[in-house]
Please model this.
Amino acid sequence: MPAELFASLAPTPLAERLRPRALAEILGQDHLLGPEGPLGRMLAARKLSSLILWGPPGCGKTTIARLLAEATDLHFEPLSAVFSGVADLRKIFEAARQRRKDGKGTLLFVDEIHRFNRAQQDGFLPYV
Model:
């Protein structure tokens, strides 16, 4: 039988069950997310700028990015630099361009961006 038949029976991993569902549920980042923090000020203005989230695996970088997108009504587009290349970037940028025409912005989250080579990183220059 196909695995998807049993997907609803699979237990949800603990990390997923405990993942914050709102920015207010994130603990220990008040210096960033609080009203006087840089992300808090961006959220109040409903305008995000390019930024780098740095920290060890599992500290919440992706969760924060996803919640920032949700709080500012942006489409969240995750990308792994380990598994992606310039062709993937072009597709994402084109989809973002189309979303922009339709009045919706995009938050691109690139995990492991340091894995991109120089040519791949240069693909960002017209957009960042």
About this structure: Strands lie at 75-80, 106-111.
